[in-house]
Amino acid sequence: MTKPRLTLYLAAPRGFCAGVDRAIKIVEMALAKWGAPVYVRHEIVHNRFVVDALRDKGAVFIDSLDDCPDDRPVIFSAHGVPKAVPAEAERRRLLYVDATCPLVSKVHIEAERHHANGLQMVMIGHAGHPETEGTMGQLPPGEVLLVETLADVAALAPRDAAKLAFITQTTLSVDDTAGIVSALRARFPAIVGPHKEDICYATTNRQAAVKAIAPKVDALLVIGAPNSSNSRRLVEVARAAGCGYAQLVQRAAEIDWRALAGARAVGLSAGASAPELLVREVTDAFAARFALTTERVETATENVAFKVPRVLREPA
Ligand code: SF4
After folding, report:
1. Would you state the torsion angle of the CA atoms of residues 138, 201, 9, 52, taken in this order, to the nearest 10 degrees?
2. Which pLDDT score, from 0 to 100, does residue 314 have?
3. Is the CB of 199 under 6 A from ligand 1?
4. 131 is catalytic
5. CA 235 to chain centre
6. Among the listed ranges 22-26, 62-66, 311-315, which one has the minimum average pLDDT value?
7. Which of 35, 162, 225, 316 sits a CA distance of 20 to 30 A from 295?
């Protein structure tokens, strides 16, 4: 039987960002330097495939520092941690390595600077996400007010409307956040903040590539985990850009092929914590079912890389 024709538009950039790449390297280098087990507080990045591969090499993922013995190294995830976590590690004299992405640390520093200048913070972010918890945990309770929606902005009750600053999670939707920032500036004209927001280059670039592809495809798949904020935003961006069927899949096995029956053009991207190996797995699955043409849609080139902490660059 002849296979139906299909064009697969591959988003570029897609997949691993510099912060995820660095966090995975940190765990691998810690295992090489100190041997297994190395403890990791929280999923190092939001991808089960990556986490399972590191677990196989000797990483032990824990939810709380209480689960880390005193005599083993512990690593903090790329999303960042509240200040209380390294403070507790120091109190217990644990050997710890902080894999917080430098672009998240930059937001932590902004928050501290504004707080030192007497400003109360508004954080645009998702409640319960580890990055939001880590960033809010840089300041004392009550100093960071979380907003997720325009309704939250309308209901905001700051201590002093003239002494406010805002920061954002790094993995938000660029378009939705622009609306929330405008609402904040309209309601609190004195609010201080970054020029636009704190959304990182990787989030911005991956969303732009999806936006370019979405109008020309029947369906768009994003490889990523359900708890990966930047991956979920890519699905929303595709839908908002007019793609009728946009879906998050963790691996090829999750693709709903019946939903793709009749499709002639499909877009494919991957969240910042999804390895390229999974993109190949999905591409191969398409090639098995369709007479496939692939086309790369490149909207930006990236050459960002972050160094791992010095303790891992030094010999044991
Ligand atoms: S998505 Fe952005 S902020 Fe998050 S780890 Fe990657 S580069 Fe850093």
Report:
1. -40
2. 86
3. no
4. yes
5. 14
6. 311-315
7. 225
Ligand 1 atom closest to Cα of residue 230 = 1
Two structure tokens written together for 27: 């765990």
Q: Torsion angle, CA of 10/271/24/105, rounded to 10 degrees?
A: 130
Cross-strand pairs, 62: 41
Ligand 1 centroid to Cα of residue 19, in Å, is: 5
Residue 289: pLDDT band (50, 70, 90) is very high
pTM assigned to the model: 0.96
Residue 316 has pLDDT above 80, yes or no: no
Q: How far away, in angstroms, is 17 Cα from ligand 1 center?
A: 6
For the CA of 17, the closest atom of ligand 1 is 6
Q: Please determine, for residue 315, whether its predicted confidence score (pLDDT) is greater than 90.
A: no
Q: How far is CA 77 from CA 10, 63, 88, 174, 292, in A?
A: 29, 11, 16, 24, 38
Task: Give distance in angstroms: CA of 88 to centre of ligand 1.
Answer: 25
DSSP string, 210-271: HHHHGGG-SEEEEE--TT-HHHHHHHHHHHHTT-SEEEEESSGGG--TTTTTT-SEEEEEE-
The ligand 1 atom nearest the CA atom of 171: 1
Q: 206 alpha carbon to ligand 1 midpoint, in Å? A: 11
**Other C-beta atoms lying within 10 Å of the C-beta of residue 232:** 20
- Selected catalytic residue, list 43, 110, 131, 197: 131
